[in-house]
Amino acid sequence: ATCGHGCKYGECMGPNKCKCFPGFTGKTCNQDVNECGLKPRPCEHRCMNTHGSYKCYCLNGYMLMPDGTCASSRTCDMVNCQYGCEEVKGQVHCLCPSGGLQLGPNGRTCIDIDECSTGKAVCSYNRRCVNTFGSFYCKCQQGYELKYTSGRYSCADVNECVTNTHRCNLHAECLNTQGSFQCKCKQGYRGSGFDCA
Taking every annotated instance into account, which residue ranges of this chain make up the domain EGF-like (predicted)? Predict the structure, then answer.
């Protein structure tokens, strides 16, 4: 079976037919399913969509149970956690709904971990790290765009001269470079290429 456009988060099952992994949808399985918007809702109280999955968390005074329901907890109510809590051997601990969040100094609220600055995030060559609340993603560097070629996604150089996104002077030639472009004044003109006289 060959899938010309590929199956980003799935496998090719027939000519251009993808079977998506759980949590993904779309013709090429490249879209995240927002499980929090599904009916019936997967969480009793609050739901946070994550890449390919979701996390449940409870309102104050409730404790998250393994099946995603929220059970009343007097001890959790007293601790006043931002995203619910768990009780282990009589000890109450506040929880954060994502691995990209950590408990703040007060032990009750969750603060974002900037994976881009801590070096936890590893983006491949030609990609830069973008931090999000509770996670991160890798984006193509400026001057490159995400392309699907020969069975995989990669960051390909944008030819600004062809796409007409350059700012060269009317009397200048545009020369494409990796990730950028240059402007050179035509014969009989002098200047930076952005200004030619």
Answer: 32-71, 112-150, 157-195
